[in-house]
Specification:
It is built from three helices and no strands. By secondary structure, it is an all-alpha fold.
């Protein structure tokens, strides 16, 4: 019986993660704000920690290497306008 409960909890957590990961960003930001406000109201965290929690939950996944998140720069990207001697060794255009 305990094994079935544990497996059920694992499946429920995985389902919640999948829903959270694939929900639209606007919904995720709104839900993150509600979750953070709820933890603050319950007395589990203070205001600063609730703000940090909301920011963390609203963040999208990814490393920023594809420039889709609007950071403006890709990690390890080579500036095509840079002179060839300023580029890392072995870097191609």
């Amino acid at each position: 019986m305990a094994q079935q409960i544990i497996v059920g909890l694992i499946v429920a957590c995985a389902a919640l993660y999948a829903v959270w990961r694939w929900m639209p960003a606007a919904w995720r930001r709104a839900a993150a704000g509600r979750v953070a406000a709820g933890t603050r109201r319950a007395g589990w965290v203070d205001a600063a920690r609730a703000d940090a929690l909301a920011t963390s939950l609203a963040r999208t996944s990814g490393c920023g290497s594809c420039d889709s998140c609007g950071t403006g720069a890709r990690r390890g990207a080579i500036d095509p306008a840079a002179p060839p001697d300023a580029r890392p060794a072995g870097a191609e255009r």
